[in-house]
């Protein structure tokens, strides 16, 4: 007597009912308590699922259908409000379990800090891990107003773990001078303003390597993603971001996990940002989960 | 590995996982295609569930907790877009099944026309059925621009089935002269503008009888329910509506089913209407399901 | 081949196609350039017309139908943007014409200053004119930052014309000490906070006299009228305002003109304010145009 | 005593007062009852007219002025809420009349299904009709959840009438695999993602032929048209769409009718979508009506 | 060359330029990181100041003008994002300084937890302190999902400090059964649903005592305060809250500090909530700071 | 005891506390009373400051930091509501003072007419002044509905002062035929639709000359700036506008003053427009103030 959830907006459209048989697992990380400007991304994962029912299941870009990929939507990880450290630990533990079960983690944020415990867990499993990072912001601060774990530090922290040379940032258009300098001095790749063209140059160098990909929705121009905490003019279009996803799909990298973060629905009454996010997730699932 | 739905906003807070053991069943009727003014109530049921996680489970009004009532949330009934007749038939069939299983139907609308097939099914089961109707509008038209099944006709249609003398409308502040005249001539009860005081007078006369209760959220003043298709000034407060619910709970009537309709979230950016609706549903469950 | 305007939202619902045969004339005064806080009331008249199609034509309060009143909707008076003085002159000329044709002027604002040239024209026609004024604000300043014609001065200016003793303000909850003092010293009636009860006391004293009635929508509490330039807590409900309209209808005063001003749609995404305004206009037409 | 409608937002700016003398006729088709996701396009035509007063009458793109084109704005066709079949019939009858009077039909939607009865009527008049279709979606389903007449089927249905080889779709980025396959197998033209470049290649092949053009506003990226039922990332810019309109104007095709559909104002609080739609209509009138 | 701040919205209207000479000090506490539902109250204090320029300086309720009260607006206390414990410590230190300087603290929230360190500091200064608490929620949890410092615990924590018998809650309509039971067992005063009448009974018993007053804006009905984290139907009107403020002003209690919390502007596009909050602050300053 | 304003949103981020030591001065011109369509830009300057706290102080485009530029934020110039002439005079006087003190004026609008008194004052100081104008609209009317001072006339009026040959407009996509003709006949430069490429051609011809730059935010496409009075499809992206700013910074022109006008926050609930405006101001300060 319960109506089918598959088209209900309660799980991502066409998610598989069975964890065991699935190759990838979607999970929400509804945390936004360390953001310095506008909170609200805690409601991002739920909204992305809700609007996913407006998607077609077929991608005319990739000529592939969601029926061709087995993924499970686990819902949102329950996190303790206002406690960043414990939240990160809970996420880290959960990802360890997923990886033990040989699942590809597919995270929905939440503020960008939630990517850190995921990347740490993934880095423990894959020795040779590289991270591809698309974002408006460097997120390379060592600490933010005295706090190590902040939405401004996750890329720096993962660089400390896997080495700056293994981190590739694209689309960056905001940061402190010190952050850009640190990246330069430590051999970390930063492509300012652009994503697609520099990515195409980097991808061949990562051929065959395990790669974790973290995308902050604000890499898009505010015109394409008004529903996020920090809107910063001069970003890329959703067309360019789709093309970047397809370029990765066509490359030889081994995508071992990915996330999309910082969707904050309350700032976007047309739900354009969440709709775009759900289409991006569809393309990532179809292009990256093999 | 799937996180608990009970506090996720995917089902009404504290709904029971098991249909068989439940006494009442919540279901959404996401239809809005016959409305003449502003559509959008198709998204009402989902939003009411989503915001229900903001509710406490305990009612200080009734000194009762949702743990004390077993109800199952079945999700939204899939309805064919733009086809009113078939939608009504699907709803009617579903309610027949619920009633056969001895469940109390608890409907979430959707436009008011969805109440008609529910009331018809309930009337088949209970010979002596009375209907309590709270609404800004009479909904007593015989047809609307030539169509018999419209959001303006459900109360007339059920009056035709159970007899106008068994229908009690409260809070009415909008309608055609012909509708008020028809009610008067046919012995139907209409309380204009007010709900609580006239209801208190009517309730003793319904003692022991099976009663179906249908509430259009626009019985509330627009100040209390801006998120609905037709906002009409001069309505009651949510306090008066809560008191009416409690008066029914304290009376001797036998509530055999109920619904709350016409919540249209897109017109209410604070989600005040859906939050109020979810609190009303909590009070109805706690007060009416015994 | 042009579809009927009567139900189109382009004119107030059920307005008469013919000026000559009409007793009352609705006109918009789309001016908001002297407001000190939030502009936007220039779009009030158009929105009130647009949403009027959601109204029933029949009033269950007055048992009267719009078919029983002949009124013509003339549209919005074209006014020169940013030029208050010339705008007031244009309005004044227009009202003189209406009065010469023996029409009852029914104005839609626009900021409150637009009422001044209307009242001046009406005062020239009716020697013994009284003004009933419902508002959150005194509007009794002699000038505002040096300017005589401002949204803060219209009631003072008309009091200067017809004498303060002939002005009756209700529902006032905001003003400078000097304004309240001036009113007191000059024998002008001000009822603070309340409308209905003091109005009922005043009405018998105005029996048979010609009365112009000007209502600022912000006499309503912000809960009932969020869509206005200055929202000020502690106002009356739309029920009380409806009752005040009906009390005037039942009294012996001779309503020779009236207006409803300060509806600013952009601050109210549910259009609750404009819907309420259009219902108030319906009740005023049905109750006051005899 | 009625103020001029030409600049009032009640009719499209500079529309001609006289049907007989006009070459083109604008009409609204306020229907949205078969949409599967977000309703609201029933209010599209009225909003497009309302904001048209913000337009200049002159096009610096085409060096032509609205004074140079005689078009009549007939208002919205009254349609029965929730009854798709009868609505389509009413539209079809109306268009037959327009065509009999040798007018060029210029439709404002409403959901995309409203284009079907227009195209059918036009196809009866012009033997050799071709259809140019710009849209995010294929709209090529044979039926949608069992219903033949749905917002997902109009292009398929018109292809069945005039032959798939005479239908040219541009900008498509969403659909079922079956739809793309059907198009391919039946010789229908589909340009995925792009509009301008492929259109420029197609236009010479249509030289001199009668062409009906139907544009779903969602061919634009959500950044350019957030106010529509289904927002789908990766669309074209309004600049590209303007350029496409101008390319058609400069070509040798004979535009015998056109429409713009799916503007749903409630999802766009800046009215950017309706403003863009009204500018597109101006360019189409200036470029296509000769 | 810098323009005057007094009417700029950068400080509360008419705040005094000089700390030393002021009797009361306004400060913002822009923290919202422990809320369980909707964040955003961090922007409350700035918005309350911004809209304060729409206020008159004179209160017709109290016949007193802001010129008669010397208060200083210190701006927002800089707080570390996502770190509740340290934030509370910073607030506590600041209040200790204010109290040492014999200022009356006037706090603007922020989530309700910010009141706790203020009340603790005040309780250290005044042995016989009583707390008056107006709120929709009990806020009496001992901990919330394991965390002692949460938006659900501040009243319990202060009750632990000053003794439950010295805490008086009004308007409560939401909480767990355990919270109500704890209050009852420990002699704490809770008035359910109502504020004004029970307050009038309590005030004489507090005659002459030092009292801290903490008001959660959600004690108001959502109709009167949609812009808050948790909207809960059935609250009081802003008229009743104004009357409660005036009742305290007229009583013999010695108000030694007060705050207004939980204004979250993003959920209220008409800024009705912030406007109401700024008027409430004006009345509190005029009525309570002697 | 007052908290630091530098990061408070009350002044533009990192503005210098001292007027005398500053090279440039930011001031708001909160006037919108002559706009013909949507008012609201009076709140633009305050919102631009408020959201500036979300900016980084460092520009990765220019490799320069706000610490490197001394600018003072003077707040908003108090202007008399609804009185255009006097407002212009007040602005003109203020700019004369700034120029006497050798400051570079940096204006925030407000409607575009506010640029006129600034440009007039600047033209008095610099004989050889050229004006660079980026806008969707020509603003070249000689008068607007009979009024010389209107938002539609400022560029014409300044052209009358400094000679049309010294005015360079870019990005224009809206105007009357007469305006384009006048520009052509009088040797004024107008680049239709495009900004960056034609600007690059013009800049070398202005080498060494004093240049005032006025930017109407609506030169951006509505996708990039929905929050403005007149949204007009087909504009440039914020990337192109940023590149234009950087091209000027890299050129040999001597920027002696500049402004950014027509930000109207109420039409943009994500504050994307104001955020973009504040980033543009940062880039202009860093690139143009040497």
From TrEMBL, chains A, B, C, D, E, F:
<dbReference type="GO" id="GO:0046872">
    <property type="term" value="F:metal ion binding"/>
</dbReference>
<feature type="binding site">
    <location>
        <position position="216"/>
    </location>
    <ligand>
        <name>Mn(2+)</name>
    </ligand>
</feature>
<feature type="binding site">
    <location>
        <position position="139"/>
    </location>
    <ligand>
        <name>Mn(2+)</name>
    </ligand>
</feature>
<feature type="binding site">
    <location>
        <position position="112"/>
    </location>
    <ligand>
        <name>Mn(2+)</name>
    </ligand>
</feature>
<dbReference type="GO" id="GO:0008295">
    <property type="term" value="P:spermidine biosynthetic process"/>
</dbReference>
<keyword id="KW-0620">Polyamine biosynthesis</keyword>
<keyword id="KW-0479">Metal-binding</keyword>
<comment type="similarity">
    <text>Belongs to the arginase family. Agmatinase subfamily.</text>
</comment>
<keyword id="KW-0378">Hydrolase</keyword>
<keyword id="KW-0464">Manganese</keyword>
<feature type="binding site">
    <location>
        <position position="137"/>
    </location>
    <ligand>
        <name>Mn(2+)</name>
    </ligand>
</feature>
<keyword id="KW-0661">Putrescine biosynthesis</keyword>
<dbReference type="GO" id="GO:0008783">
    <property type="term" value="F:agmatinase activity"/>
</dbReference>
<dbReference type="InterPro" id="IPR006035">
    <property type="entry name" value="Ureohydrolase"/>
</dbReference>
<dbReference type="InterPro" id="IPR020855">
    <property type="entry name" value="Ureohydrolase_Mn_BS"/>
</dbReference>
<protein>
    <recommendedName>
        <fullName>Agmatinase</fullName>
        <ecNumber>3.5.3.11</ecNumber>
    </recommendedName>
</protein>
<dbReference type="InterPro" id="IPR023696">
    <property type="entry name" value="Ureohydrolase_dom_sf"/>
</dbReference>
<feature type="binding site">
    <location>
        <position position="135"/>
    </location>
    <ligand>
        <name>Mn(2+)</name>
    </ligand>
</feature>
<comment type="pathway">
    <text>Amine and polyamine biosynthesis; putrescine biosynthesis via agmatine pathway; putrescine from agmatine: step 1/1.</text>
</comment>
<keyword id="KW-0745">Spermidine biosynthesis</keyword>
<feature type="binding site">
    <location>
        <position position="218"/>
    </location>
    <ligand>
        <name>Mn(2+)</name>
    </ligand>
</feature>
<dbReference type="GO" id="GO:0033389">
    <property type="term" value="P:putrescine biosynthetic process from arginine, via agmatine"/>
</dbReference>
<comment type="function">
    <text>Catalyzes the formation of putrescine from agmatine.</text>
</comment>
<dbReference type="Pfam" id="PF00491">
    <property type="entry name" value="Arginase"/>
</dbReference>
<dbReference type="InterPro" id="IPR005925">
    <property type="entry name" value="Agmatinase-rel"/>
</dbReference>
